[in-house]
Structure to design on (329 residues):
């Protein structure tokens, strides 16, 4: 009996020694798949950007990242869902300029605060916009378009992806800075808005550089001016707005990853470090640059800088929305 007891004790000791590292490994974050909520439908620019970044980050983490599309109400449905999620480090929001900066000034009963209810994890590269006109448009430059608009108030119409969309807000900012009055025409998405521009039903539109580039190269639309801080090789000969017709007009669509407020700091650090490693892949970053996506200084991607940027963008777009009289209330 004593021999049996001793043998069992030895086996227990061996089992404990063998299992301890495994238990410790299971506790290492992340121990299972992560979910990134994209508040738009699959196939759009936000979804494409999220999947591209998630693929790279998951390779660094050694865990899969599941993209969950939760569209509706300009992205605020998905954002509300994540704001209410458990801050356990497994559910995140892919944030966007619309529902993380403009929404508080557009909606009366927004059920989240972009700064108070979220912790910034990291910022994605930005995407500037480009002012487009149809191939057959009489406008060859931004100055020609502005001259017509000043001589004919509200005669110039701009298509956009919907009330409160980035293309709507950027057009409003453009009109304000240029001192003109335009007629916005809202569509259910950027695709229909671009189609009517190409068909000559509308005069102009702001679109993201990465989605506009194929249409510009194909000769279906003409690029008049960029909202970037400097010229872009992908759009040869196209001037920036700030350097030509509209000084100070610089804006880009931005994205980033957010966690529900209260997520452990080590979670943010782990994800940010994985992202930094992904962004050190020159082939990956060059592929984004080739699409017209703007890479940022490394410091701008960091959690603290992104949190502060989110707060400042909320103030910036509150002013634009107020001046343009835009409301979804």
């Amino acid at each position: 009996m004593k021999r049996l007891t001793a043998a069992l004790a030895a086996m227990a000791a061996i089992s404990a020694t063998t299992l301890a590292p495994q238990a410790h490994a299971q506790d290492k974050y992340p121990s299972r798949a992560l979910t990134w909520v994209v508040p738009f439908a699959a196939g759009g620019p936000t979804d494409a950007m999220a999947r591209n970044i998630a693929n790279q980050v998951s390779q660094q983490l050694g865990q899969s990242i599941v993209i969950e599309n939760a569209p509706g109400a300009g992205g605020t449905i998905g954002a509300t869902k994540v704001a209410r999620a458990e801050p356990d480090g497994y559910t995140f929001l892919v944030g966007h300029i619309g529902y993380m900066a403009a929404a508080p000034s557009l909606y009366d009963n927004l059920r989240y605060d972009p700064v108070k209810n979220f912790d910034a994890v990291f910022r994605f590269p930005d995407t500037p916009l480009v002012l487009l006109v149809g191939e057959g448009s009489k406008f060859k430059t931004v100055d020609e378009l502005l001259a017509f608009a000043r001589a004919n108030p509200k005669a110039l119409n701009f298509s956009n992806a919907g009330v409160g969309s980035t293309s709507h807000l950027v057009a409003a900012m453009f009109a304000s800075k240029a001192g003109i009055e335009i007629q916005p025409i809202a569509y259910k998405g950027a695709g229909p808005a671009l189609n009517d521009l190409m068909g000559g039903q509308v005069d102009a539109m702001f679109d993201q550089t990465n989605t506009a580039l194929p249409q510009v190269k194909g000769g279906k639309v003409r690029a008049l001016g960029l909202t970037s801080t400097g010229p872009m090789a992908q759009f040869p000969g196209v001037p920036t707005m700030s350097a030509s017709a509209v000084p100070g007009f610089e804006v880009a669509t931005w994205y980033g990853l957010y966690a529900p407020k209260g997520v452990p700091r080590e979670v943010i650090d782990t994800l940010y470090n994985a992202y930094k490693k992904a962004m050190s892949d020159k082939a990956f970053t060059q592929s984004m640059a080739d699409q017209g996506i703007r890479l940022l200084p490394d410091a701008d991607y960091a959690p603290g800088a992104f949190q502060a940027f989110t707060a400042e963008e909320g103030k910036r777009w509150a002013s634009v929305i107020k001046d343009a009289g835009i409301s979804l209330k």
About this structure: The chain has two domains: 34-126+254-324, 128-252. The two ends are 81 Å apart (CA to CA). The domain at 34-126+254-324 is CATH 3.40.190.150 (D-Maltodextrin-Binding Protein; domain 2).
